[in-house]
TrEMBL record, chain B:
It is found in: Cytoplasm. Keywords: Cytoplasm, DNA-directed RNA polymerase, Nucleotidyltransferase, Transcription, Transferase. It comes from Fervidicoccus fontis. GO terms for biological process: transcription by RNA polymerase II; transcription elongation by RNA polymerase I; tRNA transcription by RNA polymerase III. PANTHER family: DNA-DIRECTED RNA POLYMERASES I, II, AND III SUBUNIT RPABC1 (PTHR10535). Residues 6-78 form the RNA polymerase subunit H/Rpb5 C-terminal domain. Part of the RNA polymerase complex. SUPFAM superfamilies: RPB5-like RNA polymerase subunit. DNA-dependent RNA polymerase (RNAP) catalyzes the transcription of DNA into RNA using the four ribonucleoside triphosphates as substrates. Its main location: cytoplasm. GO terms for cellular component: cytoplasm; DNA-directed RNA polymerase complex. The lineage of its organism: Archaea, Thermoproteota, Thermoprotei, Fervidicoccales, Fervidicoccaceae. The gene is rpo5. This is DNA-directed RNA polymerase subunit Rpo5. Belongs to the archaeal Rpo5/eukaryotic RPB5 RNA polymerase subunit family.
């Protein structure tokens, strides 16, 4: 019986209905114990309802989308931070984040990554920590008790904290090498946890404090841009608990190169980085995920299809472009429409000096000149052959 | 250290991409009832397009797996950029 139902549904519906509805239909029909005849009728009804609920030609879906996201947007809290598991790490959410996404800013105000680990490092906290250390950007400042400039001898003394060194998985030798790389002069390990740099040339106070600043910021290990790496445990897809690293700061191309990282699942909340590394389709997906995440977090129930449309428009040209003056609105062909959006005089002056003409194809232009707008039934144009009596054979030229 | 080279195509965020040769483009356009300049674009500099070695003028067939609609097929036109 089950196979019969499947056959009936696929036969009738596979060309018309989307996959998710087909699946649900088969699943529900199997539970109901229906005959073949009944199944056929049900599928026909489903197809009818589905087709009736499709968007009709000429429906202004862009406007509907703008209102459907905009209205709940007014209810959003202006400044919200969400703690990503750990107290110290918080992520911008709410309206600021939404604006950031549709503006296609290059760097999010709180960049963040979710670093998944490979088979070997996934299930062991110690091994996860090992990877986290490789990722987290560590400077001399992070492991030093004291960095002092000695004006008298013209040297800089670095006193290391053994506990911090162990925590970051570093040795005194590592610090020694990093300091040597700076090439400020002779480096010497004077005590167990004490290093001294004898500067090549003597200088005044400002010179030495500048050098001291450079020593503090000298990179020991890790990836630029990753300020913190926090280990979290969560249930994986297979039900087993696994360790995931959440980072403050984002650098997808570099993190993917780190050994121990599961390259196929690691992701960032930076749309720009995703586009650069994984391509436009991945960027589209991140846009959708991030917007849905913001809306869901605020408890707003916006239909996903509106968000899909936003993401589709933003990625249409093969690059991520913002919704606004420098992106979608700025690339419209009609100058009247552009003038209606922002910087009216600039666009009008430009158009007049260049002797532009406007085709009046869009909605805004037609509102301005007071014609019927090309939406819904207004989209239909009639071509009548005045000469002969036969109906017009010309195809509708609109939408070329 | 990494045993095999990582391909962007393996990433969970990247849906299945497939090249459509220029000779088959008219057939596809007819099937989806669209003209070539109605299609969204993908640039040759796109990481996925580079991986596939896509040439300008070809189409890329993308199978999006969406929780909402299930599998959806979208085409992007390859352009220089």
């Amino acid at each position: 019986m089950d196979s019969v139902i499947e056959k009936v549904v696929m036969e009738k519906g596979s060309k018309v209905l989307p996959e998710s509805i087909l699946k649900e239909l088969i699943e529900k029909l199997k539970k109901r114990n229906v005959t073949e005849e009944e199944a056929k009728k049900i599928v026909e009804l489903v197809i009818e309802v589905y087709q009736n609920s499709l968007v009709e030609p000429g429906e202004p879906i862009g406007t509907v989308t703008a209102q459907s996201i905009g209205e709940p947007g007014t209810q959003m809290t202006l400044r919200t931070f969400h703690y990503a598991g750990v107290r110290e790490l918080n992520v911008t959410l709410g309206l600021p984040r939404l604006i950031e996404i549709v503006d296609a800013r290059k760097v999010p105000s709180t960049p963040m990554m979710e670093v998944f680990l490979d088979e070997e490092h996934r299930y062991d906290r110690e091994k996860a920590k090992e990877v986290a250390r490789r990722i987290e950007f560590t400077k001399v400042e992070n492991v030093a008790n004291l960095v002092e400039a000695d004006l008298y001898t013209g040297s800089i003394v670095v006193e290391l904290d053994p506990e911090m060194l162990a925590d970051k998985g570093l040795t005194v030798k590592d610090v020694y090498n990093a300091l040597k790389k700076l090439n400020f002069g002779e480096v010497e390990i004077t005590d167990e946890y004490r290093l001294e740099i004898r500067l090549k040339e003597a200088g005044d106070l400002t010179y030495i404090s500048k050098k001291r600043e450079r020593v503090l910021n000298a990179k020991l290990k890790g990836i630029t841009g990753i300020k913190r790496a926090i280990i979290q445990s969560r249930k994986g897809a297979d039900g087993r608990e696994e360790f995931v690293i959440i980072t403050d700061g984002s650098n997808l191309p570099q993190v993917l190169k780190v050994p121990g990282v599961d390259q196929s699942r690691t992701r960032t909340n930076s749309i720009y980085e995703t586009e650069e590394v994984l391509g436009i389709e991945a960027a589209r997906k991140v846009i959708i995920n991030e917007i849905m995440n913001v809306l869901r977090e605020q408890g707003l129930d916006v239909d996903m299809r509106h968000v899909l449309l936003v993401a589709d428009i933003m990625t249409q040209t093969g690059r991520v472009r913002q919704i606004g003056r420098h992106g979608v609105s700025g690339e419209k062909t009609s100058f009247l429409s552009k003038a209606a959006f922002e910087m009216t005089t600039k666009h009008l002056f430009e158009a007049s000096t260049q002797g532009k003409t406007d085709d009046l194809k869009g909605v805004t232009e037609n509102v301005i000149v007071g014609q019927i707008i090309p939406v819904g039934t207004g989209m239909i144009e009639l071509y009548v052959n005045v000469e002969g009596n036969s109906p017009a054979t010309n195809e509708n030229k609109r939408g070329e | 250290m990494s045993p095999k080279k990582f391909s962007v195509l393996d990433h969970v965020l990247v849906p299945k991409h497939e090249r459509i040769p220029i000779s088959e483009v008219p057939k596809v356009l007819k099937e989806i009832n669209a003209t070539i300049n109605q299609l969204p674009l993908i640039r040759t500099s796109d990481p996925v397009a580079r991986e596939l070695g896509a040439q300008p003028g070809e189409l890329i067939k993308i199978e999006r797996e969406d929780e909402y609609t299930g599998k959806t097929i979208v085409y992007r036109l390859v352009v220089i950029g």
